[in-house]
Amino acid sequence: MLGYIVKRLGISLIIIFIVTVFSFSIIHILPGDPARIALGEEADQAAVDALRAEMNLDKPITTQYVLWIKGILHGDFGMSIVEHRPVSRIISERLPKTISLGVPALILSVSLGLLSGIISAIKRGKFVDQILTICTTLAVGMPEFWLGVFGIFLFGLKLHLLPIQGYTAPSADFTQFVRRAIMPVVCLAIHLIASINRHTRANLLEVINQDYVRTARANGIPERTVILQHSLKNALIPVITMIALQVRVVLGGSVIVEQVFNITGIGLLLKTAVGNRDYLIIQGCVLILSMITVGCNFVVDLLYGVVDPKIRESWR
User: What is the DSSP string of 200-266?
Assistant: First the structure.
């Protein structure tokens, strides 16, 4: 097992390296001069050239990449071209906001998605399954921004039950954090709940029709045991993969939700940085998000062995 873990760690590091190379190259292809954008169109050319030299933008792209990697290895993500502050400090201010909303959204999504998917599979074709199918279909086709605006209108402006925007850290006021987080978390979770429901239902229906499941029922094993111990484990492998892939969407793709609810998280930071051509912030955000995504995939590889004994055997 140790050899398998070391191998997966090596692959993960290679993937992160490839992602940084591609993102670094693509960013520098974008039109626009970051120094000119930062100083304004009326700035003197000498000042622009001085800023470019200060930020190493006048050097070849390979040299810029090497200097950036050296800084990363020493814990230095560089200085923001626009904000003139350390990138690490900016990300450390924004990332906890996104994580504090993304983690509850993932927990909610996995819990409700698996539960509703199991119920749909067990009650296939019945009234409960039809209702859940309609709900998941609506959830998949419902845009996040529309759901957010509707929530603000109904629960904020009409019923006055929830704040319509802003963010409060849980360490500062947990009650206020929960009240402000309810609508953003639901907006982030709604699509993922529907996706997990569909994948769980489809895979579970495929598994419960297998011969070994019918044999377990014929031997008098309780239906609950048949579903939870014999069927669900085999149906979970593709669902686990899908959940891991959705982590990057919840964390990095939350820009719409953050913009609707005026939450200055990592998604909104990345969007603003792309508009400002703030290379170092973009590179830092992409690096952090790629590390989180690759880390989740690494955990998923280990979970495969927990779920499937055959995979566990292959580690030896």
Answer: HHHHHHHHTTSHHHHHHHHTT--HHHIIIIIIHHHHHHHHHHHHHHHHHHHHHSTHHHHHHTT---H
How far apart CA 7 and CA 11 sit, in angstroms, is 6
Question: CA-CA distance, 261 to 263, in Å (whole number)?
Answer: 6
CATH number reported for the structural domain that contains residue 189 in this entry: 1.10.3720.10
Tell me the whole-structure pTM to 2 decimals.
0.79
Q: Would you tell me how many other CB atoms lie within 10 Å of the CB of residue 259?
A: 16
Q: Which of 265, 239, 119 is nearest to 187 (CA)?
A: 265
Structural domain span for residue 108: 95-276
CB 308 within 8 A of CB 237: yes
Backbone angles phi, psi at 153, to 5 degrees: -65, -45
Q: Using one digit for the tens of pLDDT, what is the confidence trace for 59-84? A: 888 888 888 888 888 888 888 887 88
